[in-house]
Design a protein that fits this description.
Helices cover about 45% and strands about 15% of the residues. The chain has eight helices and seven strands; from the N terminus they run βαβαβββαβαβαααα.
């Protein structure tokens, strides 16, 4: 249980006796990289790739902290958030997603998340969100992605989800196939 000593920007890790963190993401390299970085920051990390594994971990020992991807291969990360809050209502949960939009942000907060971060995120972003004071506004990101980069990330994500099929991706994004090919052939914008 937290002593809840607040700093101007929120809490410190030393304010929490329980430093358990559950990471739920089906992107193996991202999850492993984030887990290592969060361990260096003092969290005791457990990670899961599927909703079923995450819920089993929560039922065994609900974490103080959690970072949960919204869209997983086998379902919706909101199910994990709801399970954590059912067992432990003082958990601090951050929802991660590559599909940032207002309705899913509202759903995440209603389910019990304290913040909502659009991918790509780094360990500093996740730590700041997990330790933030719920009653203060979040600081804007230091180096936010440009609109061009957000568009490029979205297009490439849909391309990967369509098994790198240009025609199918173009159809789903409602764009001309040649336009999509030009975008995919370019390097990512900054």
């Amino acid at each position: 249980m937290a002593r809840l000593d607040k700093t101007p920007s929120g809490f410190k890790m030393s304010d929490f006796e329980d430093k358990s963190l559950l990471l739920v993401d089906d992107d193996d390299p991202f999850r492993d990289r984030l887990a290592r970085a969060m361990e260096k920051k003092g969290f005791q990390v457990n990670s899961a790739k599927t909703i079923e594994n995450a819920i089993k971990m929560v039922q065994t020992k609900a974490p103080q902290f959690a970072a949960v991807d919204l869209r997983l291969e086998n379902g919706n990360g909101l199910d994990v958030v709801k399970e954590i809050n059912k067992i432990r209502n003082d958990s601090r949960i951050v929802m991660l997603t590559g599909y940032g939009n207002l309705p899913t942000a509202v759903a995440a907060v209603k389910a019990g998340a304290i913040d909502y971060l659009a991918k790509p995120v780094d360990a500093d972003d996740v730590e700041a969100a997990l330790l933030a004071d719920r009653n203060t506004r979040a600081n804007p990101p230091e180096n936010p992605m440009s609109a061009d980069r957000v568009k490029w990330e979205h297009i490439n994500r849909v391309f990967e989800l369509c098994n790198r099929n240009v025609s199918e991706t173009a159809r789903r994004l409602k764009m001309h196939r040649r336009t999509l090919q030009r975008i995919l052939s370019k390097k990512s914008p900054r």
